[in-house]
Amino acid sequence: MIKYSYLCVLSALGVMFSQSTFAQHDETIHLDEVGVVASKVNTLTQPNIEEARETINKTAGGVTVVDMQQVREGRVSNFTDTLGLATGVLAQSRFGAEETRLSIRGSGLQRTFHGRGIKLLQDGIPVNQADGGFDFQAIEPMATRYIEVYRGANALRYGASNLGGAINFISPSGYDAEKLTVRAEAGSFDYRRLGISSGGVIGDFDYFISGSTFNQDGFRDNAVQDAERINANFGYKINQDVETRFYIGYARSDSALPGNLTKAQLRDDPSQSILSTTVGQQRRDIDLIRVANKTNIRLDEQSNLQLSAYFSHKDLFHPIFQVLDQDTNDYGFEARFSQQGELFGHKNELIVGINPSYGVGYDERSVNNLGVRGARTNKLENRSKNIEAYAENRFYVLPEFSLITGLQYTHSKRELRDKFFANAAQDESFDATYVQTNPKIGVLYDYQPHADSPTKAQFYANVSRSYEPPSFGELAGGIRPNIVDAQDGTTFEIGTRGNSESIDWDVSAYYSKLNNELLQTAVFAAGNNPAAAVQTTNADKTVHAGIELGLTARLPWNLEWRQSLLLNKFRFDDDDTFGNRNLPGLQKTLLRGELMYRNNGFYAGPTVEFSPQRYAVDFAETLYVDNYTLFGFIVGQQINQHFSWFLDVRNLSDKKYAATSAVILNASLPGTNQSLFLPGDGRSAYAGITWNY
Questions:
Q1: Burial 552-581, CB ≥16 within 10 A → b, else e
Q2: Which residues, in sequence order, are CB contacts of 357 under 8 Å at separation 6+?
Q3: What number is the average pLDDT over the span 318-333?
Q4: Do 634 and 605 touch, CB atoms closer than 8 A?
Q5: Bigger pLDDT: 528 or 454?
Q6: pTM for this structure?
Q7: Positive or negative torsion for Cα 477, 478, 483, 485
Q8: Within a 10 A sphere around the Cβ of 343, how many other Cβ atoms?
């Protein structure tokens, strides 16, 4: 049910502000131009968005920069909101929550919570725990200026070797932040979000501070969420060549979990929550503190050294099939040297880095007595150690044609010590070590018809190796520890990106041959508790292939069409059991788009999300998530440099659909629990205002 008290107030404010819009257009355009020029002033440690685009477009592969100013034209709550239109990214929120199925090129294929397969960073510093997993709650989109997306091995510049690549959330600094920003959002299902931030420069010192709150009852029963976050960074220019910046982050997120539904329950009432006494009340409550430092030293006009260090502490209270109490400390360092110069008389750019990281976690497990700790069932201590070393060289054979070579080395160790067992047979302790070297080679060609042409295009191709050691979620996340091999593979990629007066495009085609892919399965026969029997196994050989397309077209009559299209073909490769069947758990095709009328700060138009094919939720391909189409509508206005408003209406037809699902081996076996579907939100509306000073 829409909470009209919030919507009416915010909508009335928007209408009130819009009355004077056309009388202020000349002044508004002039002031906005001044603001853009000011944003180009920047620091050594915190690149602005123009510098980020220039750097990222030197990559011989699929990359994207997401401008959060454009994302803020609608609701900004979860990863689906922020990355839904980012080329090559699949982000599906679980029951409207911050927990998301986040995948690039099929990374973390069946993980719908506590992500893996992608290196998540904030301001270039890892958010991942040392074992590779990450929490979505650590990121505050309101405290983000732009997002860098490096797909696959194109994330080598950050030392990543996983299949999915890296996503880097960049915060404003005092140089490009407003003195004061207040943003309020409200809407359906008691949704409320408030963010306040401030930034500025005082001599050689600059600062950015952000605080936010988030609350909602949720579309489904037992889906209440509450969160508070504080993010800040403080920079100091020691001299013109040396700058240091400190980052502080705090997040508290409490989430009730409504659980999965059967397909029949989804069709009957997707808002319901079915929790048996076996499962108990389910929650995921997280407290996270993170501190980091980044120091940039410009050695000379052509050389730069960047040093960074971070520490994070996380408390997790997580009643599911049992109560998990986890206390985790992670810390790491990175040294990155870059140089621009000449090699054999040609322009050459080199990046070399090393990134060790460490983590220790204390995991106590108890019987779940309706969300309350019961008798202890286990007590574990886990330790992760990693060393990533990498080098990437860009050699310009011609001014417009470059050859990129790279090499990445990974050495990872996972140790678990069982602290609670009656006899030696029950001891679940293990040590596992994973080591591999991963090469990459690519080419990039820049094309512009002539110096004054508005058309610029890039064409690229690359071949790379990927490598992904398992996290403790794969090793010890099931009933008992299960020692699996690391996932590795080879990816071939070709693509192009560019822009002209009427169209911007970004398209990549890739083909990945994987060995030992980390796949989650569930084998159980009764109860409403699929998580209790989740187990990760290694597939023999699999193939991930697809096309990633991002397109913005500027049409007549002030219309703009934006879309992101994913075409996926993920399958087994002559598997002894499954042959060449498709891998379950992810859409084959997903289109997200919007058609906006834009004129002098005003915008309005429909949105669409289209999943045209069903896809299986079991390896035997007997049970499917149905296809669906969702329509929405956004209207809003940037009235002047101080005020903006929006109204964002979603799922206009109130479609019953599954946003994502769990995965099992065979849903057709007698007595198998088919509670696998996580419904998406029903019809909803959200409104918001932003005030800048």
A1: beeeeeeeeebbbbbebebbbbeeeebeee
A2: 126, 130, 330, 331, 332, 333, 384, 385, 386, 388
A3: 92
A4: yes
A5: 454
A6: 0.91
A7: negative
A8: 12
